[in-house]
Amino acid sequence: MKKIFLIGWKDVLIAFRDPAALILMLAAPFLLTLGLGAVTGRVTSSASTINSIPVVLVNQDGGQIGNALVALFQSTELKDLVIPTLLTDPRIARQMVDQDKAAAAILIPAGFSLSIIPSNPPSATDSSSQVVTITLYTNPTRPTSSGVVKTIVDQFMSQVEVGRVGGEVAVGQLIASGLIQPQRAAQVGQVIGVNQAVASSVSVISIKNTTASGKAVKFDILALLAPGMALMFLMYTTSHGGRSLLTERAMGTLPRLLVTPTSITQVLGGKIFGIYLTGVLQMLILVGASTLLFKLDWGDPLGVVVLLLAAVAGAVGWGLIITALARTPGQVNAIGSAIMLTFGILGGTFINMAQFPAWFSVLTHISPNAWGVDAFNVLAQGGGLMDIANQVAALFLMGAILFTAAVLILRRRNIAQG
Amino acid sequence: MTAILTVQNLVKRYGDFTAVKGISFEIQEGEIFSLLGPNGAGKTTTISMLSTLYTPTSGDAWIDGHSVNQQPMAVRQLIGIVPQDLALYEDLTARENLTFWGQMYNLKGKDLKVRIDEVLALIGLTDKANQRVKTYSGGMKRRVNIGVGLLHHPRLLFMDEPTVGIDPQSRRAILDAVKELNRQGMTVLYTTHYMEEAQELSDRVGIIDHGQLIAMGNQVELTRQVGENDAMLLHIGEGEDVAALAATLRTLPGVIKADYTGQTITVIVPEAEELLAPAITRANEMGIKIHSVDMQEPNLESVFLALTGRALRD
Lengths: 418, 314
Hints:
By secondary structure, chain A is mainly α.
């Protein structure tokens, strides 16, 4: 065990003495976060949070669900987050977005409520049975703010759907038990469905945006950017660390280690421990520095530490599998850089992944970045360790599976001879 | 004397290629044994098997009674290795390197510190011990590379071509250090393709070629294998008739053989000095200018030449 620590600590010393590695491990994520923060106004303006997002709404529906959506944006729960403006002309609403006067326009077309919960049983020829969709017109220069608006609308629609299905089930049960006549089913169903949909949507959204104390949570753009950057460059650290195994083989220090009274398990364990320790130190430095310099609130400290350990485990797994599959340090560099950028994109470091379909979101979770960013966002919005249990478990599992596969491959290949 | 290393029918194959073809030999405690052979002869592969880095395809070796196949950990504690290429962490200082490698050999605490100071003194780097290795000259790095192999007082030290690519002064220092270590009682297995190094250092020499040990013994025993004849090498000027002079020299009394390669004529003769005057006289008579003359008594180079038909550096 002591030799594992000694080998790992030696690698940490070497990593932190390498100026090029230091730039990519610490300076690059820090400066990129700073730069993106400046672009979004987080660093240059006095505002320290995402709030007061200007949104325009055009409600041509006038039905209960359309009105409920408008009411949601005008509710006290969201008053710190959005500034809604109600218009009647969709063309003017779009212009406001184009002119950067609003982050997004929500266009609720006529017949929207009826298309979800019809007042009469729909017939085959009834035009009201066609789906009428809300249009969300977003401002591309405000990806984060428009992403927040989209999330609110998505959650509202999700709850509306839950309410509609709940209403249908309730009506079926009432008819079956003889409590209402079948001819009253549509009327009763509409009442139940609308009430459930509207009531639950407000409830869910208000829960998401308040803390246990009932105070509105201030959402910091840097809390969204910093984890993405840190995790992307963590992938550099772990692939660079994995590469050191092949570099040591080429430099002759690995064969030399293997002829000391040190087992191959100790050597491999030490190398892996070194990569893990380097990654943890890198993340701790980035979290600590951004907390001190940007006053960034990462959220529950225990949750942050556990998540950080889990994220490094997942990233080390990828670093090791790249090393196990590569033949030379140069190959690790090439593959590692490609994966670092791909995972950075998949993790939402550069693009708001909420705009993509749900299946793509599942695909992005092949990367530790996506799990990590998800969980860091939960923590930044006031969540605790239990709220990120799934992400933490997924990251540790990812690390364990990839670690096992990499060690099996490395042991099958003679790592001293290549 | 007792054998500290016994090698029996050691074989290493890589697919269809056999790098080491069943070599066997013994090294007695306290001696310097050199494996002499050209590049690619199998010297490094042999050392890699003996140091437990590579697993032999067949055969075995015992170091102080411990099998390299069955008891690699016990073997590793007994041996030290100085690899052909530098195997150091250049971002660490010499002291940090020695500390790390000492810990890998299970040294710790005060023993480790004392031993590091001793080794630093031995390799002459006490004053620069806290500088990173990457700031050192090539010769200084070589010395640290050797120091790492000595840290744990190995019973048997493997030195794999430690003088390749270094300046004459550093080479001299390394050869002197090997002799000093041996004087202190350390057994050394030294591989080289420099005949002079093997001659200067070794108690016994094994000549290896194409993975086979083709001759073994002390220098007297080995040179006796090719007889007691001397070689005289005449270096002739460009454009001179080398073939004609070689043919003339063959007619001189006592000359066993006179062949030429390029502008050099090699004459094999029982006593080279006795041939020098008549050879120069004949060359002058023919109007051929001799640039220089080398005379060689029987040596390991001529043994290798006699056994393989090739020079060591071919």
